[in-house]
Structure formats: structure tokens, C-alpha cells
């Protein structure tokens, strides 16, 4: 089922590439323990954690926004036909592009592509393979990258993140620059009167969230400030993929505090469907800091 939200002047559709058990808790969260997983098993399994494989359920998805007559695509997943070190991502054929087109949107229709950050599972469909060459998937779009993020990745040869995954900057990002479709912007860049970037550094130096200011509701696409609902319970858990784990913790806690206070709907990049929900501060005496309550419809 496709999840859609109407925020008032801004509509959102989830375009899911894959969703299922992917990462072991200890693989992504160095601070996690088997005891913590067992203590939360009543709500984790089976929706958010598969006890058989000991893997957390992770969604890989994009968010398609229609705002003021323009189509804005936030993040583009892993991609098909790409050589990656991680077997889960290597030479996949998930058919994400067909899922996008099933919504009635062609690649040529996209006006803006936003990269919350430049990790392998957020830029894969920036390009596609045509006659043996990687070319931009969205030929009429402007691809937005923050100055800080591009500065971190542009000297990409030997970068630890690429050693771990394979050189996705070479096949998924550089062709966009070579085609003249890339725009470097500030971390608070305003796309239009209802959609703007919001700084959320730590996971990477130029990591951003995307703020939606609809007439009916406000929402925040939080990128990888959160990877899993466990981080609402344990906001001190940063991932091993974070460039600056302590900065990521501060950013995450600040977002949790603000969203719990304001009731902002948040859509983290990797939460399973329907992805959207609200943060609630835990009651006194609760072992957790916050809870995440999914919102099935709006």
C-alpha cells in the first residue's frame, strides 16, 4: 500500500525500494546490548525486529513531495545494477523507478532532488545506467547538495565510507555534477514557501532534515537523524555510520525535544511503513526517554 499525506498545500508519497530485516542491532548501534533488545521484544517483534535472524527491520525509501506546482524528490535509495561491497545492495534489481512511475510521475517530471546526505542508500537513483554509462535519472531536475556535505565527500578517493560500501560517489554523484545539474546550497536553504532544509549535522557534517510547513500540518523528514524507533527510546545510541557520534546524539536529542514539544509529525528515512508518527515524552519512571507513535493516516 502506498502511504500518502496531505499537509495542506504539500502532498507526500512514500516510494519504497525495500523494507525488511537488514542490520543486526550490534552492527548498527555499538551501544546496544542483547539485554536491551530482549527488554523491548514485546513491541519490537515482529514489526521492527526479526528474532530469527537477529536483524532490525529497516526501510529504504524516498519521499516525493508535490508543493506549489513542483515535484521535489527527497533521497533516492540504493539503486539498481550498482556494484557495492555490501551483498544486500550489490547488483540489485528492486525496480524503484517503476514504483515511482506507478504514482503517475516520470523521471522527466521531477523538478528538484534533495540529498539529505551522501550515503549509499540515499543517492543510488541519482543516476541510472544507459548504454553502459551512468547518467542523471532526472534530466530536468536541479540536484541540491549542501556545501558542507559536498566538502566532506568531494575528496572521495580512499574515504572510509566508500571503502566500506564501494565508490558510489563515482557512479551516483559525480555524473550529476558533470551534467551541470548540481546546486550547492546552504543547510537552511528554502526550496519554496512551504519546504526548506533544516540543519541536522552529526551523522554527516552536512546532513539536513526537510521541513514541511503545510497549512494543515507541519512535518519533518529527519533523514538519518534516526535509523530505528529504538533511538527514540535510547537517544544516546548513535550508529557506527555516524561521522561524529556525539554531535549526532546532540542533534537527535534536540529534534526529539522539539518534536515532542510541538507535536510535529516526523518521517525518518528508515522507519518501516507508514513511517510517519509523533514523538511522545515518556512518563516519569519509564526506562525510556521518548516513545514513537505511528500515524497510519492524516
Report what the structure shows.
This protein is α/β, with parallel strands linked by helices and 298 residues long. The protein has a single domain, classed as Ribonuclease Z/Hydroxyacylglutathione hydrolase-like (Metallo-beta-lactamase, Chain A). It is 22% helix and 30% strand. Strands 1, 2, 3, 4, 5, 6, 9 and 10 form an eight-stranded mixed sheet that branches.
Short account of what is shown:
The chain is an alpha/beta fold. It has a single domain, classed as 4-Layer Sandwich (Metallo-beta-lactamase, Chain A).
| CATH homolog superfamily | Ribonuclease Z/Hydroxyacylglutathione hydrolase-like
Please report which band the strand proportion falls in: under 5%, 5-15%, 15-25%, 25-35%, 35-45% or over 45%: 25-35%
> Which sequence of SSEs, written as H and E, runs from N to C?
EEHHHEEEHEEEEHHHHEEEEHHEEE
Provide the helix percentage: 10-25%
* Cα distance spanning the termini: 15 Å
Largest sheet: 8 strands, mixed
Mean pLDDT: 95
Taking pLDDT < 50 over at least 5 consecutive residues as the criterion, the unreliable ranges are none
C-alpha geometry: globular
Tell me, what is the CATH class? Alpha Beta
- Output the CATH topology: Metallo-beta-lactamase, Chain A
Number of strands: 16
Using the CA coordinates, give the radius of gyration.
18 Å
What is the architecture at the second tier of CATH? 4-Layer Sandwich
Amino acid at each position: 500500500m502506498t502511504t500518502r499525506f496531505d499537509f495542506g498545500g504539500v502532498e507526500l508519497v512514500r516510494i519504497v525500494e525495500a523494507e525488511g530485516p537488514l542490520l543486526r542491532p550490534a552492527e548498527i548501534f555499538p551501544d546496544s546490548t542483547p539485554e536491551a533488545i530482549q527488554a523491548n521484544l514485546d513491541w519490537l517483534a515482529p514489526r521492527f525486529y526479526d528474532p530469527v535472524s537477529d536483524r532490525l527491520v529497516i526501510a529504504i525509501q524516498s519521499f516525493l513531495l508535490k508543493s506549489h506546482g513542483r515535484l521535489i524528490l527527497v533521497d533516492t535509495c540504493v539503486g539498481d545494477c550498482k556494484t557495492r561491497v555490501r551483498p544486500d545492495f550489490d547488483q540489485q534489481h528492486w525496480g524503484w523507478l517503476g514504483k515511482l512511475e506507478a504514482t503517475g510521475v516520470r523521471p522527466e517530471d521531477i523538478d528538484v532532488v534533495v540529498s539529505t546526505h551522501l550515503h549509499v542508500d540515499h543517492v543510488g537513483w541519482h543516476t541510472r545506467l544507459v548504454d553502459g554509462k551512468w547518467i542523471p535519472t532526472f534530466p530536468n531536475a536541479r540536484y541540491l547538495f549542501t556545501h558542507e556535505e559536498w566538502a566532506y565527500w568531494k575528496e572521495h578517493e580512499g574515504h572510509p565510507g566508500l571503502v566500506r560500501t564501494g565508490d558510489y560517489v563515482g557512479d551516483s554523484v559525480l555524473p550529476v555534477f558533470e551534467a551541470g545539474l548540481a546546486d550547492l546550497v546552504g543547510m537552511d536553504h528554502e526550496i519554496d514557501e512551504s519546504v526548506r532544509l533544516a540543519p541536522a549535522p552529526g551523522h554527516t557534517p552536512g546532513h539536513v532534515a526537510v521541513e514541511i510547513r503545510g497549512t494543515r500540518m507541519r512535518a519533518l523528514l529527519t533523514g538519518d537523524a534516526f535509523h530505528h524507533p529504538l533511538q527514540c527510546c535510547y537517544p544516546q545510541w548513535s550508529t557506527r555510520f555516524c561521522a561524529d557520534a556525539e554531535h549526532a546524539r546532540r542533534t537527535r536529542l534536540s529534534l526529539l525535544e522539539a518534536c515532542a514539544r510541538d507535536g510535529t509529525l516526523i518521517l525518518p528515512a528508515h522507519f518501516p511503513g507508514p513511517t510517519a508518527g509523533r514523538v511522545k515524552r515518556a512518563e516519569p519512571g519509564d526506562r525510556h526517554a521518548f516513545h514513537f507513535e505511528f500515524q497510519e493516516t492524516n
